[in-house]
């Protein structure tokens, strides 16, 4: 009897396949994910890179669109004219003024290059950067409208919170431009492999800014934009390869002006591009799910140093402003300020929230919550005030009759 009881308990703890309620179609082997081989995954990534290189050389699309639309043609003409002025000014300094000012004895002759940079070159480059950004935005919106219709873009914000979000997004984009430049220069300082690593990173940065307009028009947040690029790293590396190769032969200002010269054309190419693969986790595109080989990464976190620098800068600025506000509050309250009472954002929280201006809604809600609500008066006091009002109205009516 004890043997039968012990056997029943063991059968309950470790049931045999005949005792388990498993459908006959199910098997653990079918639930295990299938992977492509290393050679097939490498071949698919090479195909994606070839597609990216092909999309980066579609000058026929650019010429056809510029010739067919007057608005795009006028903005590209203005951008070309202004960038030619910037390039001529930069090369005039690099090739003529800088060699002539070397070895001069007089103070004015030695510093003529400095005066030229401060009084002419830097203002021209700054003005061209501002106007190029506005003209490229118009070109991108017009291209999206011609290709996908007027309803393809996200409508501009009209509420107060939406305007704050757009301002925060613009500020975050400006910071991201400078941090990308810093990371590119830092990579080039690495011995032996530094220039190659800096050039590869610059290819991805150029591709990101070429596709950023269409991603913003489709309503993608920063984290989704970065994830989209990092999961299709082969395609975007090949797409940014021609523009990065064009902007590596001169000085930093000359390379920036040269990139701005070709930037509108690459925006149009990005609008007509088809990034590959469509599904990075099933690159073959078959009905059965086949993951890429584990030896080739699906996602390469290319912009992790950039987002880390962005969050560090914004965290320092927010801590500085918060400290100043707490000091002012403590000075007004007799030194009783609490600096550590608020919740601090982590790095993962600030990647998307800071860029999109998230947190402004919570700030407005906190302001609304901190407003003092009117205290409820007792019923007797309310009756007394109503009687006083009625008496006052009666006296005023009597005076009018008199």
Automatic annotation (TrEMBL):
Keywords: Membrane, Transmembrane, Transmembrane helix. The keyword Membrane applies. It is found in: Membrane. This is Etoposide-induced protein 2.4-domain-containing protein. Its main location: membrane. It is a multi-pass membrane protein. The keyword Transmembrane helix applies. Residues 329-402 are annotated as: Disordered.
